[in-house]
From TrEMBL:
Protein name: TTF1 factor
GO BP annotations listed: termination of RNA polymerase I transcription
SUPFAM superfamilies, alphabetized: Homeodomain-like
GO terms for MF: chromatin binding
Organism for this UniProt entry: Callaeas wilsoni (North Island kokako)
Record's signal peptide: none
Domain Myb-like: 124-172, 173-255
Length: 349
């Protein structure tokens, strides 16, 4: 299949396919396209976002079955073959002979690459080692000075996962403030986000910049794009005194207050309609667990607000409306809201 055809066929299942590199498209055409089509026949949509408990169990089952089939004696050898140079050739041969890609992704409607990364995270013995000691932090700084941001190399030297060492270095590389945010820090964060968003908007659509340039107030914060993915490590550098995760959490907090201030989304008629829309959207997802819900998409049920705002409104709704909600499953809570609370809200409206 040629590249253009592959991209076109994948677009049905992956809306953001135009942003994926040509080499990744080729791999997905081989590993994922037929699987996606089979899932479509079964009425199952391709999923993204957080993995559910059910999917995690399926990955575990797939890995265990593949180990049993091939005789490879551990999940670590299977998923981190480079750690076992003496067995590397044999493991690669067994993976090829027994169709590793197909087996590992069986029964999971997601791109193979995401399933593989999730499996590696689940079975990495270096992934759950608790807090870093003072000695480890000093080693990490020393290794980063020697090897730069080669986290794979550093993770091997420290027997920690790639993600763990990268995130920990992000926290310790400068004097980080863990207390309440000062006015100066908050302003630095706002300026940093504004700066990266100006550049992003200018790149994506020069026409979008005019409203941003004309405003000297915080109105620019209300743009929908501002709570989409941002380059947090760059923003961390600009703020200077906080690591990236703190910046992201603070930014979500700022957005929630800015976007809701003065909008009166949960007052009067608007509030009733927002609750009705939220319950209907949640019911339509047929989700068995909160982790299966795409909260970013659901934010449209209320308006241009961050996912955290939608989640907090759902929490208040279930606490105030569903008796004994702690004893109910997620789907039971949604069913109750749909069957009992929705008619009451519609009547009020």
């Amino acid at each position: 299949m040629d590249l253009d055809t592959a991209r076109q066929e994948l677009e049905e299942f992956i809306p953001h396919v135009k942003n994926i590199s040509d080499s990744s498209i080729k791999k997905m055409a081989g590993r994922d396209l037929m699987r996606f089509k089979e899932f479509k026949k079964q009425g199952i949509a391709v999923k993204f976002g957080r993995f559910t408990q059910k999917e995690n169990k399926q990955i575990q089952k797939n890995v265990e079955e593949f180990l049993s089939l091939t005789g490879i004696d551990s999940a670590e050898k299977l998923l981190f073959t480079s750690r076992y140079p003496d067995d590397k050739d044999t493991i690669h041969r067994l993976k090829t002979e027994h169709h590793f890609c197909e087996k590992i992704s069986e029964g999971i409607p997601r791109p193979w690459r995401l399933i593989y990364y999730r499996a590696r995270k689940m079975f990495d013995s270096n992934n759950y080692k608790g807090r870093y000691t003072k000695e480890e932090k000093e080693k990490l700084k020393k290794y980063q000075a020697l090897h730069g941001n080669d986290w794979k190399k550093i993770s091997e030297l420290m027997s920690r996962s790639n993600l763990s060492v990268a995130m920990k270095f992000s926290e310790i590389k400068s004097a980080i403030n863990y207390g309440p945010w000062t006015k100066e820090e908050t302003q630095k964060l706002m300026n940093a986000v504004k700066e990266v968003m100006r550049r992003k908007l200018k790149t994506e659509n020069a026409g979008s910049l005019s409203s941003l340039e004309q405003s000297n107030t915080d109105l620019w914060i209300e743009r929908e794009k501002l709570y989409q993915q941002l380059p947090w490590t760059e923003i961390e550098t600009k703020v200077g005194s906080r690591y990236w995760r703190q910046c992201k959490q603070k930014w979500n907090s700022i957005l929630t207050s800015k976007l809701t201030r003065g909008q009166q989304l949960y007052r009067g008629t608007n509030g009733l309609q927002a609750k009705i829309n939220l319950i209907k959207r949640l019911y339509e997802t047929k989700a068995e667990d909160a982790s299966e819900v795409n909260w970013d998409e659901l934010s449209n049920a209320i308006g241009d607000v961050p996912r955290a705002y939608v989640q907090s409104k759902f929490y208040r709704l279930k606490v105030s409306s569903v008796p004994l909600w702690k004893r109910k499953t997620f789907s039971e809570i949604i069913d109750y809201l749909y069957e009992k609370k929705l008619p009451e809200l519609e009547e009020k409206l």
